[in-house]
Specification:
Blueprint: E1 18-24, E2 30-38, E3 44-52, E4 59-60, E5 68-73, E6 79-84, E7 91-96, E8 103-104, E9 112-117, E10 123-130, H1 144-155, E11 167-168, E12 172-173, E13 178-185, E14 190-193, E15 202-206, E16 212-217, E17 230-235, E18 241-243, E19 250-256, E20 263-268, E21 279-283, E22 290-292, E23 300-301, E24 319-320, E25 326-333, E26 336-343, E27 348-352, E28 357-364, E29 369-376, E30 379-386, E31 392-394, H2 400-405, E32 412-417, E33 423-429, E34 440-446, H3 460-467, E35 471-475, H4 485-489, H5 498-513, E36 517-527, H6 529-538, E37 546-550, H7 556-562, H8 566-574, H9 582-587, E38 601-606, H10 614-626, E39 631-636, H11 643-646, H12 649-666
Parallel strand pairs: 34-35, 34-36, 36-37, 37-38, 38-39
Antiparallel strand pairs: 1-2, 2-3, 3-4, 5-6, 6-7, 7-8, 9-10, 10-13, 11-12, 13-14, 15-16, 16-17, 17-18, 19-20, 20-21, 21-22, 23-25, 24-25, 25-26, 26-27, 28-29, 29-30, 30-31, 32-33, 33-35
Organism: Oceanobacillus jordanicus
Keywords: Hydrolase, Protease, Serine protease
Domain Peptidase S9 prolyl oligopeptidase catalytic: 457-666
């Protein structure tokens, strides 16, 4: 099989344009979106575009080496508020939609984000990170030099820690600031702080009559020891607060119905810890009575698809219909995500579901139509218009030049039966320039999570390996989302058990059924949980001739105390903490089996990874090197756990080059 298109290259990563956050205008004639691209400064630009629903060429609204996002139209459609880093930090800006310059609305010291209009267009609600005694009237954005001076001074001071949740992979070490809810009176240009608790608050919605604020937070005294997130109603006049949920679960993505008579929310009660399927609930705001619409389903709500080319957030639901009889949302199922509708009578309808990845949507209540953001295995992203009758029209061609020039492999879906009868879904990519009768080296890819899902989305790393001449297999072993509650829960307290055999059976299946795979040239790689599993595999079998472990876990005993989630994740996934049974945690730690490793292993790790800290890779490297095994350790400065997905473009390319180098060396 020959191709007139060239093979994918590592540097093509910086050519991709990534779309997110579609927003239909109030009149339904236009929609806006965010386009994110790499720039020449080893960073990303995010810009706002607007396009007619009739499919005309998109018009760019913002420019420069800055990040713009979260555009929200005023109810009359004449103005739009958005957040931008053009002044230095993320602040709120206002833009007239019929043309004109943007005007800065906030100059908060720590920035402002996530704007939402009141239904009458008089107010804008948003998030701001504040110290306990901050005065809204004295907020002044620091200059770049002032911020640098403050950061340098901070580095010279000891960090005093007295809480469990003192760091996170996304934010680094925490300070005493809390995310509070602020409202801007647009006409009078005045700010009012709505929350003051020693907790991070997440704005959910404002009631249609403007009298009640819906927000999510954990306001319990033991919040530092809990992972729950409750919904609250705040009466803006009396300042009285009402708790809608029971403190035993996590709730998010909540909104009022158009009349204000109901509230919808995603959430669950942690019945299966981190492997619990999300439910959709409807609340009566007066009585607090709660109804679960999804109790009889066995699908995961929201978008749990894993990819390495998704940047920016998008709406996944739930979103009300105008008549309040139904709700729309994205769900994750069988390697794909689609758009669904559920009536208040609990009738579930599939509105759009193909072999691809619906990563976001916007709903026009008047025309009963949608703008869908869709990615597929062969296309990074585009927007489509889905009409009431099911007609689907493509609106954009985001990466046309790239796709016309570069060969992208089409995956073949496979299904493998596990030892206990479970069906394991996977996908196989043929190498670039595939020729019948030729034998090719092979790479098994293992996803992280473990409660996530590979599927029908664009994945640059896998496409690059196929372009370099490898057969690539990626699967969803037990523990993955998309196959029901029992399946996603099946790896808990069994890491290295059924999940390991699922992967090995999938490898056996493709070796038995695809004669073009060279069984003497097998490679394996994965990140996070996939890195744990890569480490586990090389400690339990020598069938692979090369392995690359990324941001991995090697020692569950130390992970408990060094990871930003270790103190609860260890219990969630293994049923015990360090002090409960250290011997059991050591039994399932890949480090214990270092003496068994005969596979050349490349260890890739970000130095600022707080999720799976770099010491996890370091311990494994030292043990293997001390044992004179074939091992190499690559540390990425300034990189956290998200290196492969949203890290600096140059570091992302370096990472890909090291993966390819190792497999080329040993396969």
């Amino acid at each position: 099989m020959t191709s007139t298109k060239r093979a994918l290259k590592t540097e093509d990563l910086t050519r991709l344009e990534v779309y997110s956050d579609p927003q239909i205008s109030p009149d339904g004639n236009f929609y806006s979106y965010v386009s994110t691209t790499a720039n020449d400064n080893d960073d990303y630009n995010s810009h706002l575009f607007v396009q007619s629903i009739q499919g005309e060429t998109p018009v760019q609204w913002t420019f420069g080496d800055v990040k713009n996002s979260n555009l929200r139209y005023s109810p009359d459609g004449k103005r739009a508020v958005f957040q931008s880093t053009r002044s230095g930090l993320s602040q709120l800006w206002m833009l007239p939609t019929e043309g004109g310059e943007a005007r800065q609305l906030t100059t908060f010291k720590n920035g402002a984000s996530s704007p939402t209009w009141s239904k009458d267009g008089k107010y804008i609600f948003f998030h701001a990170s504040l110290d306990k005694d901050d005065d809204l009237h004295n907020q002044k954005e620091q200059s770049k030099e002032e911020r640098q001076k403050e950061q340098e001074a901070k580095k010279k001071q000891p960090l005093i820690v007295n809480s469990l949740k003192y760091k996170s992979d996304s934010s680094g070490f925490h300070d005493n600031k809390r995310v509070q809810l602020i409202v801007l009176d647009v006409e009078n240009n005045t700010f009012t702080q709505l929350t003051r608790d020693d907790a991070d608050h997440s704005f959910q919605d404002i009631s249609p009559d403007g009298k009640q604020l819906l927000f999510a937070a954990n306001l319990n005294a033991d919040a530092d020891y809990e992972l729950s997130n409750d919904l609250f109603l705040l009466d803006l006049q009396s300042k009285e607060r009402k708790k809608l949920t029971d403190g035993e679960g996590g709730y998010h993505s909540a909104s009022f119905s158009p009349s204000g008579d109901k509230i919808v929310s995603f959430g669950h009660g942690f019945e299966y810890a981190g492997a619990t399927l999300t439910e959709i609930y409807v609340f009566d705001p007066e009585t607090g009575e709660r109804t679960c619409l999804s109790q009889s389903w066995d699908i995961q709500l929201g978008d749990l698809m894993i990819g390495d080319t998704r940047l920016g957030q998008s709406e996944v639901g739930p979103v009300w219909t105008k008549d309040e009889k139904s709700l729309f949302f994205i769900a994750t199922d069988q390697g794909s995500t689609g758009l669904y509708e559920v009536s208040l009578d609990k009738e579930l309808t599939t509105l759009y579901e193909k072999d691809n990845h619906v990563f976001g949507f916007s709903y026009d209540q008047n025309k009963e139509a949608f703008v869908l953001g869709i990615s597929s295995a062969t296309n990074p992203c585009d927007f489509y218009y889905l009409e009431k009758d099911g007609t689907l029209t493509q609106l954009t061609k985001s990466n046309r030049a790239f796709l016309e020039e570069v060969a992208i492999a089409e995956p073949e879906t496979i299904s493998v039966k596990a030892d206990d009868g479970k069906e394991i879904q996977g996908w196989l990519l043929k190498p670039y320039g595939f020729t019948e009768g030729k034998k090719y080296p092979f790479v098994l890819e293992i996803h992280g999570g473990p409660h996530a899902m590979y599927g029908q989305t664009f994945f640059f790393e896998m496409q690059l390996l196929a372009a370099r001449g490898y057969v690539v297999l990626y699967t969803n072993p037990r523990g993955s989302h998309g196959y029901g509650q029992e399946f996603v829960d099946a790896c808990r307290s069994d890491y290295g058990g059924g999940d390991y055999t699922d992967l090995m059976i999938a490898v056996d299946y493709v070796l038995d059924n695809y004669s073009y795979i060279d069984e003497d040239r097998l490679g394996v790689t994965g990140g996070s949980y996939g890195g744990f599993m890569t480490n586990w595999i090389v400690g339990h079998t020598n069938r692979f001739k090369a392995a690359v472990t990324q941001r991995s876990i090697s020692n569950w005993l130390s992970f408990y105390g060094v990871s930003d989630i270790g103190f609860f994740f260890t219990k969630w996934e293994h049923g015990l903490n360090l002090l409960d049974d250290p011997e059991k945690l050591w039994e399932i730690s890949p480090l214990k089996y270092a003496e068994n490793v005969e596979t050349p292993l490349l260890i890739l790790h970000g130095e600022l990874d707080f999720r799976c800290p770099v010491e996890q890779g370091e311990q494994l490297f030292i043990a293997l090197k001390h044992l004179r095994k074939e091992v190499e350790f690559v540390r990425f400065p300034g990189a956290n756990h998200e290196l492969s997905r949203s890290g600096k473009p140059a570091m992302r390319q370096e990472r890909l080059n090291h993966i390819c180098r190792w497999f080329e060396l040993y396969l």
